[in-house]
Amino acid sequence: MNITITSPDHPSAPPASLTGVGFGRVFADRMFSMDYTPADNWHNARIEPLHALTLHPACCVFHYGAEVFEGLKAYRRADGGVQLFRPIENGRRLFHSCERMDLPPLDPDAFVEAVTDFVREEVTWVPNEPGTSLYLRPFVICTDTQLGVHGTTNAAFYIIASPVGSYYPKGLAPVRIAIERDDVRAVRGGTGYAKCGGNYAAAARATVRAEKAGYDQVLWLDGVERRYIEEVGAMNMMFVIDGKIVTAPLEGSILAGVTRKSILQLAQDMGYETEERRISVQELFDAHARGTLTEAFGTGTAAVISPVGEMEYDGRSMILNDRKIGKISQQMYDTLVGIQRGKSPDPHGWTVELQLSDQQFALCDSCPERLGSVEMSHADLADGILVIK
Ligand code: COI
Question: Is the pTM of this model over 0.85?
Answer without folding.
Answer: yes
